[in-house]
Amino acid sequence: MHIHTTYSDGDYTPQQVVDMARTMGLDMIAITDHDECRGFGDVSDDDGLSVIAGIEISATHGGQVHVLGLGINPQDSGILAHVTQAEKKRRERATRMARLLRDADIDISLDDVDAVCSVGVIGRPHFAAVLVAKGYASSPKEAFSRYLGRHAPFYVPLERITVAQAADMIIGAGGKVVLAHPGLIKGSVLSDLVPQLGDMGFWGIEAYHPSHTTGQCRQFESMARAHGLYVSTGSDFHGSVKPDVKIGDEKRGGDYLGLSMRALLERR
Ligand code: AMP
Ligand code: FE
Ligand code: FE
Ligand code: ZN
User: Fold this and answer.
1) How far apart (Å, rounded) are the C-alpha atoms in residues 226 and 268?
2) Cβ proximity of 74 and 38 under 8 Å
3) How far is CA 234 from CA 3, 41, 76, 99, 119, in A?
C-alpha cells in the first residue's frame, strides 16, 4: 500500500511496478508517489490485481510528517493543484541546492539532476543518484549523510502544507487518509498529532513499515485501535535509493490488518 515510481523518486515506471506486483502474485498494491499522482493515466486494474491510486504528501505538524492518501481520484482538481504547486516549490528548492553545491565547488548542475528525473517531481534522491554517479559518495545513504540529509550542509527544507490541509485535500479527492510510517516521526510531533487524527478525518495509521521494529508495529496497531482507526502496511519500495527493500517485502500484520485492507477495498 506504499510504492514509489519514476513519477517521484522510484526507479520503475507505474506499469513496471504493476508488472512486478502481478509476477509476484500480489492481490492489491497502492502507488503513492511523493506529492505526485499523475502516473495513473498509465495503469489500471488487471488480472485480479487491484491497483489503488494514492499519494504521499510531505506535510508539517511542527515537524515533518508524511501523509498517505489511498483510493484518491487522481484527476481531482484540488489534488492536481497541490501537485502543480509542489512541483514548482520542489524545483525552486532543487535550484537552491544545486547553487549551494556549485558554490562549494562540487561539480553538479541542475541539468545533471534533471537527467535522472525524467517525469514527475524532483527530490533529494535524484541529487543522491548524481552524487554517487560522479563519485562524490559511494551510496545514496552516504550522499544523504554527507550532503543532503537534514543535518548536512546542502540541505534546503521543503515548503510544506499542514497535516490538516493534506487530510482535507485527500478527503476532497475521495481518498482515505493514512499517517505514513509513524516510527519515522519525531516523538513530540507524533504525540501531539495522534489525539487529533480522528478530528482531522484520518482513516488509518501505517503500523507496518520496514523501518518499524516488530514492537513498534504492535504499538502503532494498538494506537490505531484505541483511536478508532484502521491500520495499513507497505514496503515503501523505491528501488536503488533504498536497495534493501523489495516490493511486497513488508509481510507482518494479522487479523486487524486483514480487516482494514478489506474495508479499504470494499469502499472504493
Ligand atoms: P525529499 O522529499 O526530496 O526531501 O526527499 C526525501 C526522500 O529521500 C525520502 O522519501 C526517501 O526516499 C529519501 N531519503 C531520505 N533520507 C534518506 C537516506 N538517509 N538514505 C536514502 N534515502 C533517503
Ligand atoms: Fe522517497
Ligand atoms: Fe515517506
Ligand atoms: Zn514513501
Assistant:
1) 25
2) yes
3) 7, 22, 24, 35, 23
pLDDT of residue 268: 60
123 lines ligand 1 (CB under 6 A): yes
Question: How far is 74 from 35, CA to CA, in rounded Å?
Answer: 11
Distance 123 CA to ligand 3 centre (A): 12
Cβ atoms of 29 and 17 within 8 Å: the answer is yes
pLDDT-based confidence at 177, cuts 50/70/90? very high
Q: Verify whether ligand 1 is closer than 6 Å to residue 124 (CB atom).
A: yes
CB atoms within 10 A of CB 215: 8
Q: Which atom of ligand 1 is nearest to the CA of 238?
A: 12
For cell 509476477, what's the residue?
A: 23
Nearest to 36 by CA among 92, 83, 81: 83
- CB neighbour class for 219 (10 Å; exposed up to 12, middle 13-18, buried from 19): middle
Residue nearest to atom 21 of ligand 1 (CA): 141
User: Which residues have their alpha-adjacent CB atom under 5 A from ion ligand 4?
Assistant: 56, 236
Secondary structure (3-state) at 91: helix
Q: What is the pLDDT of residues 8-28, one digit of tens each?
A: 999 999 999 999 999 999 999
Q: What is the pTM of this model?
A: 0.94
